[in-house]
């Protein structure tokens, strides 16, 4: 039995809305490439597990945090290249793997978008930091970042040999960890979706977090990513907020977040366009905008 060239680990929780598209796009863009796909499901109460199995993925069901899930998936990889992916990512370019792999030259262990996305680049604290929704690794090199950590399990701390994904925003300290091993990473470009001439959404009341520009963006908070002018994939970003609704008995007024109705609106528009084959790719691939906090 040959070792697949690419291992894809997908973290999932109540992802039935996007997971079919994620898996089908993955299959369509990796034809001819030996690939092993594993979905780690964090106790979904919807059809996520059935969807993953129906599409031929290995499924691991485990209640765990996102850092634990990323390490568990990385540990399962036996391939020279490993992609860790969120379930609301849709791969778009048929040559995304060849393009990203070409940047994993000697001394480079990771290709990932900069974490400045959130609609119109509204995360200044993520500039120069990897984004956890898409992490393509040279497996052997990236594993050099694993170290012995003591994690509490029950009352007592237990030793674990793992990558430290427990820092700020999960991946923001990875450049420092890579640098310790004399390794680097390649940031992908971030592209905002096209702007409409008229607002596509109007908040019913003043939102806790908002920018008037968001109302005009065809795919809202979702962003496109790429390299060298090629758009490789799309990430919906806040699909997890819609999933969160299913787990909360009542809204949390103290939570500072974007309107869920807005998230649902642009998500439905994205999926309708994608399903009908009329997805609008960004026409402005300028990356000169400066991220700013909302």
Q: How would you sum up this structure, described in words?
A:
The protein has 294 residues and is an alpha/beta fold. The chain has eight helices and twelve strands. The chain has helices spanning 19-29, 48-54, 66-76, 96-101, 139-142, 174-180, 239-247, 260-275, and strands at 6-12, 35-41, 58-61, 81-86, 89-91, 108-113, 134-138, 147-153, 156-162, 184-192, 223-227, 230-235. The strands form two sheets. It has a ten-stranded mixed beta sheet with strand order 3-2-1-4-7-6-10-11-12-5, sandwiched between helices. Strands 8-9 form a two-stranded antiparallel sheet. The radius of gyration is 19 Å and the shape is globular.
Name the beta content range: 15-25%
The separation of the N and C termini measures: 51 Å
Reading the helices and strands in chain order gives EHEHEHEEHEEHEEHEEEHH
- Number of strand segments: 12
Low-confidence stretches: none
Number of helices: 8
Mean pLDDT: 91
**Order of the strands making up the biggest sheet:** 3-2-1-4-7-6-10-11-12-5
Radius of gyration (Å): 19 Å
Largest sheet: 10 strands, mixed
Helical content class: 10-25%
Shape: globular
Structural class comes to alpha/beta
Outline the secondary-structure elements:
Blueprint: E1 6-12, H1 19-29, E2 35-41, H2 48-54, E3 58-61, H3 66-76, E4 81-86, E5 89-91, H4 96-101, E6 108-113, E7 134-138, H5 139-142, E8 147-153, E9 156-162, H6 174-180, E10 184-192, E11 223-227, E12 230-235, H7 239-247, H8 260-275
What is this structure, in a nutshell?
The protein is an alpha/beta fold. The protein has eight helices and twelve strands. The chain has a ten-stranded mixed β-sheet, with helices on both faces. The protein has a two-stranded antiparallel ribbon with strand order 8-9.
């Amino acid at each position: 039995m040959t070792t697949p060239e690419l291992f894809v680990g997908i973290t999932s929780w109540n992802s039935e809305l996007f997971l079919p598209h994620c898996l089908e796009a993955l299959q369509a863009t990796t034809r001819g490439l030996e690939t092993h796909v594993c979905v780690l499901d964090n106790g979904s109460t919807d059809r996520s597990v059935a969807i993953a199995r129906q599409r031929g993925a290995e499924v691991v069901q485990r209640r765990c945090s996102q850092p634990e899930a990323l390490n568990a998936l990385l540990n399962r990889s036996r391939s020279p290249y490993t992609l860790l992916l969120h379930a609301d990512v849709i791969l778009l370019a048929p040559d995304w793997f060849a393009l990203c792999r070409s940047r994993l030259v000697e001394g480079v262990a990771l290709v990932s978008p900069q974490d400045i996305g959130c609609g119109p680049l509204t995360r200044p604290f993520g500039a120069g930091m990897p984004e956890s929704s898409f992490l393509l690794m040279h497996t052997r090199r990236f594993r050099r970042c694993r170290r012995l950590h003591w994690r509490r399990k029950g009352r007592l701390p237990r030793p674990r040999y793992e990558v430290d994904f427990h820092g700020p925003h999960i991946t923001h300290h990875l450049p420092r960890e890579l640098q310790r091993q004399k390794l680097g990473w390649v940031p992908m470009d971030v592209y905002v979706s096209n702007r409409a001439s008229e607002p596509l959404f109007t908040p019913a009341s003043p939102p806790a977090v908002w920018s008037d520009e968001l109302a005009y963006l065809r795919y809202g908070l979702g962003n496109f990513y790429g390299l060298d002018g090629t758009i490789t994939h799309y990430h919906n970003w806040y699909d997890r907020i819609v999933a969160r609704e299913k787990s909360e008995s009542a809204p949390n007024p103290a939570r500072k977040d974007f309107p869920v109705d807005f998230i649902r609106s642009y998500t439905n528009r994205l999926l309708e366009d994608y399903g009908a084959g009329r997805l609008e790719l960004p026409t402005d691939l300028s990356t000169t905008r400066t991220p700013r906090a909302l």
